[in-house]
């Protein structure tokens, strides 16, 4: 077993350039934890490491990273120079020992260029070397900041325990306030606390930025999805009604070749008008999508239900319309625009389904719209079933329009029910109408 939690076989494979694998991943022992916390990333064929084992490329340091690392090096070096007079040094230290001590501080500053790959190992090494040197405060501050900013709080806490471990021992010795070593030690520990606190702040701010970006991305994706659904509902509701009229009259002409010239002319006129209206509706929708800043196209209201029923009667359908909705007055508020538009779309889809899935174009269809301010609005469409209606109550080929209607009703604050009741297919919706 090697020192860093990887056995000799894996080490030999790594040096030979072979993939490093382990049946259970990283070992859970203390050395394995140390390796994970240190964040070792090596190239395959050079050293064994997690990134090499997974075949991940090592990300090179960019210009910004180099600038930050050089800034950290200069900060630690300037701190070493500026604090040289404030550090308590044993008067009996020789010049050679002092020079070696200062050289050690310089090497520690240079070692900060390794803090991105081995932040924990670097911080631990500097903390262990601190009792033997007087000029490691600057590099230790940078190393602790890096650990706090880039590693989980649990790892930061372990390193902080190592950093502040000598403090209780120092305080237990009841140091004198007049002793210069007391001020030097307290200043040292205060600076370490500031470095760790600043690193934790930077880490939390980075996490906040990442979470905000993720939330913004999710919100943008949700907005795009809702926009696509709105477009799909609008195009289905607008075009399905027109195209179903075309289908009915085209089928009548196909299966009734002996129709009189007058009947053929009326059917052709309806086909022409429906096709023209479908093209106009499609052009309006595309125009709104291309230039939404010019305003939305005119939306249907509840009063347009009568026109909708008239178009279906012109196509040969037997529509019975009952509208029991009071007109808006000074004391009675009108139907809200969203509720009226939703009711119109429900009636439109109900008539379309009756033509597509009913027993025939002349089958009776009843449409009932009732409501009052403060009581809500109800919409009910009934049409007879086909002779071979499905036993499970579903309409062959249907589904998308009803899904869109349920979404519309839900967005308006209402509910929608549909299904066979034995003889008729019933579409029933309740919508709010505040008082």
TrEMBL record:
It holds the Pfam family HisKA_3. One of its GO terms (molecular function) is kinase activity. InterPro entries: HATPase_C_sf (IPR036890), Sensor_HK_TwoCompSys (IPR050482), Sig_transdc_His_kin_sub3_dim/P (IPR011712). This is histidine kinase. Residues 228-293 form the Signal transduction histidine kinase subgroup 3 dimerisation and phosphoacceptor domain. Its EC number is 2.7.13.3. The chain crosses the membrane at residues 66-89, 120-148, 155-173, 185-202. It catalyses: ATP + protein L-histidine = ADP + protein N-phospho-L-histidine. Signal peptide: none annotated. Keywords: ATP-binding, Kinase, Membrane, Nucleotide-binding, Phosphoprotein, Transferase, Transmembrane, Transmembrane helix, Two-component regulatory system. It is an enzyme of class 2 (transferase).
């Amino acid at each position: 077993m090697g020192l860093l939690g990887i056995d000799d076989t894996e080490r030999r494979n790594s040096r030979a350039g072979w993939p490093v694998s382990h049946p259970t991943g990283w070992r859970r022992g203390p050395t394995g934890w140390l390796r994970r916390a240190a964040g070792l990333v090596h190239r395959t064929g050079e050293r064994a490491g997690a990134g090499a084992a997974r075949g991940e490329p090592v990300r090179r340091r960019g210009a910004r990273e180099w600038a930050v690392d050089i800034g950290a090096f200069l900060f630690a070096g300037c701190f070493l120079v500026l604090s040289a007079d404030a550090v308590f040094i044993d008067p009996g230290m020789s010049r050679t020992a002092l020079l070696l001590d200062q050289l050690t501080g310089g090497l520690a500053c240079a070692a900060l260029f390794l803090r991105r790959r081995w932040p924990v190992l670097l911080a631990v090494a500097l903390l262990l070397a601190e009792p033997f040197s007087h000029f490691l405060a600057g590099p230790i501050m940078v190393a602790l900041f890096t650990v706090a900013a880039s590693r989980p709080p649990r790892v930061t806490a372990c390193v902080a325990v190592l950093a502040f471990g000598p403090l209780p021992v120092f305080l237990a010795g009841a140091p004198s306030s007049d002793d210069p070593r007391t001020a030097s030690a307290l200043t040292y520990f205060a600076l370490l606390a500031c470095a760790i606190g600043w690193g934790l702040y930077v880490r939390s701010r980075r996490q906040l930025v990442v979470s905000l970006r993720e939330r913004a991305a999710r919100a943008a994706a949700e907005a795009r999805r809702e926009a696509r659904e709105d477009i799909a509902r609008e195009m289905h509701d607008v075009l399905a009604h027109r195209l179903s009229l075309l289908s009915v009259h085209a089928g009548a002409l196909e299966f009734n070749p002996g129709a009189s010239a007058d009947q053929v002319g009326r059917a052709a006129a309806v086909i022409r008008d429906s096709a023209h209206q479908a093209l106009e509706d499609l052009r309006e929708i595309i125009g709104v999508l291309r230039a939404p800043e010019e305003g939305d196209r005119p939306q249907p209201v509840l009063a347009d239900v009568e026109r909708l029923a008239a178009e279906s009667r012109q196509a040969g359908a037997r529509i019975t319309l009952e509208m029991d909705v009071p007109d808006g007055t000074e004391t009675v508020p009108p139907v809200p625009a969203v509720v009226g538009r939703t009711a119109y779309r429900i009636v439109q889809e109900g008539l379309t389904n009756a033509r597509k899935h009913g027993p025939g174009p002349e089958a009776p269809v009843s449409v009932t719209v009732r409501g009052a301010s403060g009581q809500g609005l109800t919409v009910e469409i009934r049409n007879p079933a086909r002779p071979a209606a499905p036993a499970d109550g579903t309409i062959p080929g249907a589904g998308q329009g009803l899904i869109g209607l349920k979404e519309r009703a839900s967005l308006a604050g209402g509910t929608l029910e549909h299904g066979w009741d034995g003889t008729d297919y019933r579409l029933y919706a309740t919508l709010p109408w505040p008082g």
